[in-house]
Design goal:
Layout lengths: L4 E2 L4 E2 L4 E2 L4 E2 L4 E2 L4 E2 L4 E2 L4 E2 L3 E3 L4 E2 L4 E2 L3 E3 L4 E2 L4 E2 L18 E3 L4 E2 L4 E2 L4 E2 L4 E2 L4 E2 L7 E4 L4 E5 L23 E4 L2 E4 L1
Parallel strand pairs: 1-4, 2-5, 3-6, 4-7, 5-8, 6-9, 7-10, 8-11, 9-12, 10-13, 12-15, 13-16, 14-17, 15-18, 16-19, 17-20, 19-21
Antiparallel strand pairs: 21-22, 23-24
């Protein structure tokens, strides 16, 4: 493996830990406390705060800010201009840094362009947050979430395809993976 690469316009503060083969593109700022895994990609104009943990093979598209108290596990995808928050009730004149609420995005989850993730919630493994959705509560593994506030409209396969809605058919039509799907859960068999 090769060391990470950083574009000449990017800023990586001393103390940041970045894994091998990670690419940091134009106008990115990674703060000193950030912990980033291997084989990640950070598109143009991304910000990564101090209290941020990012796993391996994470893709962060342009114009995403990953503020303090956010954890992204392995294989997470953050679409262009999606937003994380870290304070539930911000006011400019009130310092609430001691009130940050941790947000965890579990392995393999995808967050669509312009989606908003309100702080203090967990997005389950391989969940799929649609473009423009606003996440205001925890998201189940494999859930397909859309709207404002985001609501579950189906389930997603690990390969990224929507699972059939049929009550007796729980196999992905693209890859064949079978799932146990109940009223409010989905898990691979």
């Amino acid at each position: 493996m090769a060391a990470y690469t950083v574009h000449s316009t990017a800023i990586v503060d001393d103390g940041a830990v970045i894994g091998d083969d990670t690419r940091v593109w134009h106008w990115v700022h990674i703060c000193s406390g950030a912990r980033i895994g291997a084989r990640c990609s950070f598109g143009q104009n991304v910000f990564v705060g101090n209290d941020v943990i990012i796993g391996d093979n994470v893709k962060v598209q342009n114009n995403v800010s990953i503020y303090d108290a956010v954890t992204l596990e392995d294989d997470v995808f953050c679409g262009p201009s999606m937003v994380f928050t870290n304070v539930n009730n911000p006011r400019s004149h009130v310092n609430r840094k001691h009130e940050y609420r941790r947000t965890v995005v579990k392995r393999g989850a995808s967050i669509g362009a312009n989606a908003t993730v309100v702080c203090g919630h967990e997005i389950g493994e391989y969940a799929f947050i649609g473009a423009g959705a606003v996440v205001t509560r925890d998201v189940k593994p494999y859930a397909l979430m859309v709207g404002t506030p985001a609501r579950r409209i189906g389930w997603m396969c690990q390969c990224g395809e929507r699972l059939p809605d049929s009550i007796d058919q729980h196999a992905c039509t693209a890859c064949g993976q079978r799932y146990d799907i109940g009223g409010n859960h989905c898990a691979p068999l």
